[in-house]
Amino acid sequence: MSGHLREIDAASAKHWLDLGKAKLFDIREADEFRREHIAGAQLLPSAQLIKAVPNGNDQGSDPEIRIAIFHCNSGQRTREAASDILRCGYDEIYALQGGLSGWKSAGLATELNRKAPISLQRQVQMTAGSMVVMGILLAWLISPWFALLSGFVGAGLVFAGLTNTCALARLLAQLPYNRRAEKRDEAQTATNLTDVQIVNRP
Length: 202
Prior knowledge:
Radius of gyration: 20 Å
Order of helices and strands: EHEHEEHEHHEHEHHHH
Number of helices: 10
CATH class: Alpha Beta
Low-confidence stretches: 53-60, 189-194, 197-202
Mean pLDDT: 79
Distance between the termini: 7 Å
Strand content: 5-15%
CATH superfamily: Rhodanese-like domain
CATH topology: Oxidized Rhodanese, domain 1
């Protein structure tokens, strides 16, 4: 199989899924999936594909389904993970065009859990943004020294971008509501890995 990951539009993907011809894998993070996902999609974060051990099985766990469709939120992460996705043991492998956003733009339904915590990425954005605004307001109302708070947060975000690590995200992940959901997601991901067999491809 070549290194190019073919795309499939949302309407065609839904048709195949309704017919039981394909399986849909969501490679976003567990917290994103928990908040909103396509009905029938299986959670399989991209990091799990990278860690999977290659074997000689050239099919997924269900030999009757030989088509796999992968998606993220916009399609960008799916394209970045193409080399790992293409090692999955299905005869035909596609990326959902536009990801979850493309699915919704096509007028197709998703399952939305408003009670689930918002994604960790959004929690980081909201917390960091609030700290920046707070620093600016305190610097204006009380003392210019409070501007250091905004500068500290900004420097932290730059460091996170350079190193692909985020101390704030790790702290937020330890909050009780995030930890409870994480345990459930780990169990579900382990189950979904049985539907993807990784193969060595030239």
